Hints:
Blueprint: E1 2-5, E2 14-20, E3 25-31, E4 39-42, E5 50-58, E6 63-70
Antiparallel strand pairs: 1-4, 2-3, 2-5, 5-6
Amino acid sequence: TINIKWTSRWAGDVVVEVVALNGATVRSFNIADVQLKTYSELDLSTLPAGAYFLNVKGKEGTSSVFKFIKR
């Protein structure tokens, strides 16, 4: 499970993609109205162990990329 804390720079709907190191998108989450949420919890329990990127993209052009390791 990954928790994403939403700050004031995020508004509206966002797409969160979990991307493997080979570039394949292995999970995708659509989260509506993030400005109304403090955080979102994403269940990644079925992912195999390994390194991944978390791509977060807002409809207004906001984006962030984070690397994480699932054990």
